[in-house]
Amino acid sequence: MIKRMSLLSVLVLALAVMFMVSCEGPEGPAGAAGVAGADGADGADGADANVTCLGCHSEAKWTGIEAKYALSGHANPGALDYAGGRGSCTRCHSSEGFGDFVAGYDGEDIAYPSALSCESCHGNHTVLEGDISAPLATMDPVVLIVDPTMSIDLESSSNLCGTCHNSRRNGSYYEAIDSVWTEDVNGNDSLWIVPTGSVYISSSHAGPHYSSQLNTMKGIGGYGSTTETTHDNVGCVGCHMGASTDTEGGHTFAPNLANCTEACHGTVADIAVFAAEKHDAIKARMDAVAEALVTAGALTSDGAGHYTPAKNVVSQAVFEAFWNYRVMYQDHSYGVHNPGYYDEMLDEAEATLGL
Ligand code: HEC
Ligand code: HEC
Ligand code: HEC
Ligand code: HEC
Ligand code: HEC
To answer: From the CB of residue 173, how many other CB atoms can be counted at a distance below 10 Å?
Structure first.
């Protein structure tokens, strides 16, 4: 017991002395400098410029893309001679016109228009640091031709596609035609008034134009309530480029079924069956609507499954059914761009036409 107590007191005493000494004693001399630590391990190598660039600029990669591109409609435009040079068409139908449009000029005729090439959509890099992506001519939100106060931002390279693939007209363009000059029986021009409640289909190519894909994907441009689609998150590029074979996807711009399967649609075999069924079902409904529109005087038929707008006056309701048909026909995705909106447009048309 005593031993233990004295041990404890010695300890307390020793601490007290140390404390007093360190408080009151003079400062000791500085110790010798420590030995320098060993060198750290080397950092990870920076990206090799050659390897980074060659991810895209290798001979094999580039010629592979060129071969795919040669198959695409962009490289082989059917409408170049007809539309490439004209001021109102060239922003979408020629490389030069598109270049002018992106630079802020629109509407000039182009004397020698050419098809889109790599440079039309690309151009040069602005920076070569960090994650290098392919330079694009524009990724700005798309200002809609049918309503320049409205723009659509797909927040991706698909904005490039939408710049050309958006509608040129809405139905309201035709609804607004309230009179028209016609030739009377004596061969004189006479002003003919379009009756209230009727619409004059003034052209054999009345419609939104073959460029209506962006509008349709966003569920606008037809008659019926807007239906957004989950497909617009995929964007044009997600389906039409992405994974590629020699003839689909990538720079062929032909949709590749492999792009559908990643997150949503199971195997390629599953989606192939599903897509074919949907395509056939939509096509059958569109054909029935077209036949009824022939009867209603809004379309003419060549008897071989091809329908052309009839220059004619029709009721507002028939016009709306006609317009929905033309939106779907010119969009040309048989529903894929916006399945819900196709349903809506078909429902409206079928109700009007008694189908
Ligand atoms: C993700 C793909 C990609 C990567 C990576 C890439 N580039 Fe490019 N580069 C392109 C594309 C696409 C073009 C446009 C080609 C065209 O317009 O014909 C281009 C254009 C260029 C041009 C202009 C060529 C011309 O004729 O206008 C130069 C120079 C260039 N790249 C250098 C580089 C360098 C250097 C690197 C690496 C530091 C690099 N690139 C990495 C895709 C890439
Ligand atoms: C400069 C305007 C322009 C841009 C940008 C553009 N296209 Fe096109 N695209 C056209 C025109 C014009 C045609 C029709 C060419 C013709 O037949 O004369 C077309 C045709 C197509 C076709 C049908 C081609 C075929 O092979 O039959 C698809 C699919 C297509 N474009 C998808 C896209 C996608 C996806 C993008 C974005 C990566 C895009 N386009 C960007 C103007 C453009
Ligand atoms: C906003 C862009 C844009 C404008 C402006 C435009 N087009 Fe087009 N046009 C397209 C796109 C995109 C396609 C092709 C879509 C497809 O292949 O499905 C197309 C397709 C066509 C086609 C069918 C081509 C084919 O191979 O079947 C013709 C004909 C045509 N346009 C003529 C014209 C004319 C004439 C003008 C001017 C009066 C014009 N376009 C203005 C974007 C435009
Ligand atoms: C109609 C527009 C258009 C044309 C024409 C076009 N490209 Fe592209 N290209 C794109 C878009 C959009 C992307 C980006 C795709 C993405 O976001 O995944 C791209 C991506 C690329 C890339 C990088 C991604 C990849 O595919 O590995 C390269 C390299 C490239 N393009 C080269 C070319 C070359 C070479 C040509 C001409 C033979 C060409 N492009 C023509 C639109 C175009
Ligand atoms: C969900 C996938 C998907 C998205 C997103 C998508 N497309 Fe399509 N697109 C298709 C498929 C599939 C077809 C062909 C349908 C058929 O023939 O049955 C098609 C058809 C087309 C056509 C008509 C081609 C022809 O042969 O006439 C054009 C042009 C086109 N798409 C452009 C676009 C543009 C531009 C965008 C973006 C605004 C877009 N697509 C978004 C899958 C898609």
So the answer is: 13
Cβ 93 under 6 angstroms from ligand 3: yes
Cβ count within 10 A of residue 315:
16
Task: Identify the band that residue 227 occupies on the pLDDT scale cut at 50, 70 and 90.
Answer: confident
- Burial of 200 by CB count in 10 Å (0-12 exposed, 13-18 middle, 19+ buried)? buried
Mean pLDDT to the nearest integer, 254-276? 89
Whether pTM > 0.70 for this model: the answer is: yes
- Does residue 295 belong to any structural domain of this protein? yes
Give the integer Cα–Cα distance in Å for 56 and 49: 12
Report the alpha-carbon distance of residue 10 to residue 23 in Å, rounded: 20
Which residue, judged by its Cα, is nearest atom 38 of ligand 1?
53
- The alpha carbon of 331 and the centre of ligand 3 are apart by a number of angstroms equal to 11
Q: What percentage of the chain reaches a pLDDT higher than 70?
A: 86
Residues 301 and 152 in one domain: yes
Same domain membership, residue 121 and residue 247: no
**How much is the pLDDT for 51?**
75
Gap between the Cα atoms of 349 and 343, Å rounded: 10
Task: Give the pLDDT confidence of 103-145 residue by residue, as tens digits.
Answer: 999 889 999 999 999 999 998 998 888 889 999 999 999 999 9
The dihedral sign for the CA sequence 47, 49, 50, 51: positive
Cβ of 91 closer than 6 Å to ligand 2, yes or no, is no
In a domain, 16, yes or no: no
**Are residues 323 and 266 located together in one domain of the fold?**
yes
- Domain limits for position 93: 52-137
Question: Residue 252 burial by CB count (10 A; 0-12/13-18/19+): exposed, middle or buried?
Answer: buried
Q: Is the CB of 40 under 6 A from ligand 3?
A: no
pLDDT at 7: 37
CB neighbours of 191 closer than 8 A, spacing ≥ 6?
A: 179, 180, 181
Q: In ligand 2, which atom is closest to the CA atom of 237?
A: 35
Q: How much is the pLDDT for 1?
A: 38
The reply to whether 329 and 293 lie within a common domain is: yes
